[in-house]
Amino acid sequence: MTRDEFEDTARSDGYGEPKRVRFDPSSRSETHSHDQVSFVYVLEGEFILNTDDGAPRYDPGETCILPKDVNHAEEAGPDGATILVARK
């Protein structure tokens, strides 16, 4: 998926304006959850989404959807990661 396709899909599916988020190399957030669904697009680097169900890895151009209220920790690969995230 391209960035334009992600933004078009987010808009047509009722998500808010995408926010750009940068993660430092090999960083990992504290475990937390969001009260909205998150639609994620990877711009740069390797993005890892740690949940109780596993830790899938996403590369540039890939997307994922994280349902609301799911405990997770975002992690970046050795070169960091930059994502766009839209929520609804």
TrEMBL record:
Domain Cupin type-2: 20-74
Region described as Disordered: 1-35
InterPro entries registered for this protein in UniProt: Cupin_2 (IPR013096), RmlC-like_jellyroll (IPR014710), RmlC_Cupin_sf (IPR011051)
Signal peptide: none
Gene3D superfamilies: Jelly Rolls
Pfam family of the protein (one): Cupin_2
UniProt-listed SUPFAM superfamilies: RmlC-like cupins
Domain of life: Bacteria
Protein name from the UniProt record: Cupin domain-containing protein
Organism ancestry: Bacteria, Pseudomonadati, Pseudomonadota, Alphaproteobacteria, Rhodobacterales
